[in-house]
Amino acid sequence: QAVNLHECLDLITRLSRHAGKIIKSRINQKKTIETKATSIDFVTETDQEVEKLLIEGIKQKYPNHKFIGEESFAAGIKEKLTSAPTWIIDPVDGTTNFVHSYPNVCISIGLAVGGEVKLGVIFNPVLDMFFRAIKGEGAFLNDEPIKVSGVKNLSDALVAVEFGSSRDEDFRSIVAHNINYLAKHAHGIRAAGSAAWNLAQVARGAIDLYVEMGIHAWDMAAGDIIIREAGGSVMDPAGKEFDLMKRRVLGSSSIEIANEVYPNLQQYYPEHD
Ligand code: IPD
């Protein structure tokens, strides 16, 4: 099945700009929230509405394409990643930010073909920052090419982390250990509340390394290709090859900094997507 990635990008740009208007118009309003996997894993009606809008918009043009969507997954629709063209969608990455009107939320959309992400879009509608990449064609922020910083040492790095959405004691202790190690050596640590945002910041050179274990395919799919196209590295946090479905990511400005950091991390292996 031949896929025209430029046509796909045009479609998803249009749909995400439309969805972005909805998110932006609601971020400062009161939301009705429900919880999903844990007591601090939230979903709002906007997450569900935006995912529906995106999936229906794509289906109209590509009725045979498949979908792995955060909210469809939560509703029990669990697609495996196959070689078929598959859209991997997080309608609102940073739902906790959205709930609290903290202005850092992103729509994150990746398109995998042959099991590999070939196209990615991350759009922060509040800050109007639109990141995109197509395999082999570089990465862009609002139509300007972007590159990773190239920083090679943790001692020169600004690092992004997240505290995750699990209250599990073992998990929290691993996160605390890793953040403590990173904070001891880096210039500084940031936790922005959106995995897609963190990956996009690595791609544009504002963050030098980001690591998280326990996230999902829809948090990482677009960021994976955008970082690689910006010249950065994406690997598994144990130093192995990145696997989109294994819920673990280490994105960085260079392979050197990734190789320095990963042997010092405690590892957490969640159930696969
Ligand atoms: C979450 C955010 C957060 C990360 C969590 C994700 P969501 O995504 O990306 O930064 O720490 O692991 O689940 O639920 O807001 O789409």
Helix vs. strand class = alpha+beta
Portion of residues in beta strands equals: 15-25%
End-to-end Cα distance:
25 Å
Bound molecules: D-MYO-inositol-1-phosphate
Tally of separate helices: 8
The largest β sheet comes out as: 7 strands, mixed
Order of helices and strands: HEEHEHEHEEEEEEHEHEHEEH
Task: Give the strand line-up of the largest sheet.
Answer: 3-4-5-6-7-8-9
What is the alpha-carbon Rg in Å? 17 Å
Key words describing this protein structure:
273 residues, binds D-MYO-inositol-1-phosphate
Descriptive account of the structure:
- By secondary structure, the chain is an alpha+beta fold.
- 35% of the residues lie in helices and 24% in strands.
- It contains eight helices and 14 strands.
- Helix 5 (169-185) links the parallel strand 10 (158-160) and strand 11 (188-190).
- Helix 1 (5-26) packs antiparallel against helix 2 and helix 6 packs parallel to helix 7.
- It is globular and about 50 Å long.
- The two termini are 25 Å apart.
- The structure holds D-MYO-inositol-1-phosphate (IPD).
- D-MYO-inositol-1-phosphate binds at residues 70, 90, 93-96, 162, 164-165, 193-195, 212, 214-215, 219.
- Residues 70, 90, 93-96, 162, 164-165, 193-195, 212, 214-215, 219 line the site of D-MYO-inositol-1-phosphate.
